[in-house]
Amino acid sequence: MLKExxxxxxxxxxxxxxxxxxxxxxxxxxxxxxxxxFQQDPEALLSHGRGIVFVETSERLEPPPLVCCAVESAARVxxxxxxAFFMKGLNSSTQLPSNSSYPAFSLLSALDNVFLLxxxxxxxxxxxxxxxxxxxxxxxxxxxxxxxxxxxxxxxIIWKYGGVYMDTDVISIRPIPEENFLxxxxxxYSSNGVFGFLPHHPFLWGCMENFVEHYNSRIWGNxxxxxxTRMLRLWCKLGDFQGLSDLRCxxxxxxxxxxxxxxxxxxxxxxxxxxxxxxxxxDSYALHLWNYMNKEGRxxxxxxxxxxxxxxxxxxxxxxxxxxxxxxxxxTRKLGPGNK
Length: 340
Ligand SMILES: *[C@@H]1O[C@H](CO)[C@@H](O)[C@H](O)[C@H]1NC(C)=O
Ligand SMILES: *[C@@H]1O[C@H](CO)[C@@H](O)[C@H](O)[C@H]1NC(C)=O
Ligand SMILES: *[C@@H]1O[C@H](CO)[C@@H](O)[C@H](O)[C@H]1NC(C)=O
Ligand SMILES: *[C@@H]1O[C@H](CO)[C@@H](O)[C@H](O)[C@H]1NC(C)=O
Ligand SMILES: *[C@@H]1O[C@H](CO)[C@@H](O)[C@H](O)[C@H]1NC(C)=O
Description:
The protein has 13 helices and ten strands.
């Protein structure tokens, strides 16, 4: 009797184990088939107005180390907020990269609050003043199309969903305590490399209208920093910065150049020079690395003790480990799958 009971218990246990095993097998296979959190509806993801947004308008899927660092550092500084990386390459490709030849793509998609989304401009620009411009334009005849399409996308995304837009060469170091803001490159000159707004802010609607009205693809930045500066002048009468204070007008903050541009574009090479410890960045929220100035292709070199290497170590340690430290870093990463 006892034997029979033991026997039937064992059988039940065996079935239970089998079922559990099947279930685990299936769920892990579910993960292995769709390893990347990329098929997200931007509406659902960003509708709380607190997202951090990056945009890649080229077709490339494997981000270079600096781009990877920008996204990882934002994910660390804003752990409770979604970090959305819109990639053009995800819209057209049916085949997703799914192996070790895409270490940066894999790294980013494994971060809990990072979401890789297809950049579908037609859909994103719908219901904005940019839509009619977009469907009429022949992209292949526009100089600077990669920049212009990025300028347009960021305005529409932040207008629709709210949140903070950042260029992919901006390393986040501490949270931005502002809701509606533009970042100054210098007194009276705004950038469009970082800005943040609550959803449906009329300033951005005005920017989109002005974009179309004064569209000129032959002038670099005409739809970017020049547009933001033009609009700021329409909205506000701003003087020069005094000391380290930000300026305010209506419900808009115009943030001091120290917040994002403590090293000006003329001095961009300082990021690639040996770290000068006097640079503390205590008055900055994030650092813009001026990648478009970097025509000579400077990179982060392991062991060089440059400012940029130290920034990577501190603000994007996974990127540093996997993409800069190289094979040893990759091996430790493979051994430890617990990065979810
Ligand atoms: C992006 O994808 C959408 C739907 O998946 C498609 O309708 C659209 O044509 C695509 N756009 C580009 C530029 O590939
Ligand atoms: C990774 O994927 C790419 C593109 O699908 C392929 O060309 C490459 O051979 C793959 N590499 C490995 C190691 O599987
Ligand atoms: C866009 O411009 C290119 C280059 O001038 C031309 O070959 C192409 O036919 C144009 N496309 C459309 C849809 O007009
Ligand atoms: C900001 O100010 C503008 C202009 O005064 C106003 O139209 C808009 O509703 C304000 N937005 C918020 C979110 O307070
Ligand atoms: C920057 O802040 C740190 C920590 O608060 C402090 O120890 C350091 O002295 C500050 N540096 C400067 C130059 O103000």
